Every structure is written in structure tokens, then in C-alpha cells.
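Write out the 3D structure for:
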Amino acid sequence: MRHFGPSIAHFPLSANQLRFKASHIRIANRKRVEMFVAKRFHLPTRLATAAPDIAAEWHDELNPMHMYPAIIGIGHVQPVWWKCAICSHSYQMSVEKRVVRGGGCPQCVVNGKRAVADGALEGEMDSQLRPKRPVMFNMRTKY
């Protein structure tokens, strides 16, 4: 009678068999490489360190207690609550939209308070005058 099934007995992993963390991958030349470019180049990815001025507008009362700026990354796409420092308006917006795409308080944008309150000069708020620069780096793009 033939035995159908795995030919190796299933034993728990021993000490010399390691499982690698999810933050690393192995490539063809057997080097361990970090998955995320931000970790590889040591760029700050947490909201409190990457954008402390935006993290100061975090609404502590309306956001869940397990979410706070020290652990939330700048690429977080679920909407969270913010409290505007100028008009004290509470609104929902993703961290990625605030940090990467430059979103702000919807009431201040409509009323035009943001440009005056930031102390910006006349031409600084014009997006056409600012130089274009890449926000996200593509691994295949050569600079």
C-alpha cells in the first residue's frame, strides 16, 4: 500500500531554522534587503517626527485611543480627526492627504484664513510659482 502525503514529518521549528521578519526580503544574491524605501534610507515615517507641525493639530478627543501621532505613519490613508489651530474646526482627513498632498482645514481654505495666518508672503502661496519636486520616489526611475 502506498502512502500519499508529505514525505517529511511536521516538527516545530528548531533554533537553527529562523523565520525572517516581514520587513526584510531575500533577493537572488542572498542579501537581506529592507522592503520599504523609507526604512532603507532612514527617512522618518511617523507623523510626530516627519511633520510635527501637522501632528500638533491631531484631535485627541475624537480619534481612537490606540491611534496617536507617534505611531501613525505619514502614508496612513484612513481618515482621522484633526482640529484646526486657527479656527478650531474639527474635520476628518487622511494623514496621507495632509502630509503628502498638503491638505488643510476645509473652512480655512474656503474663507482664505490659512494664507494670512501662516504669515506667507504674497507669491508664496501660489502653487504655480513653486518648483516642482517629486514627493514619492519610484524605484525604477533614475535621477
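Strands lie at 24-26, 32-34, 79-83, 90-94.
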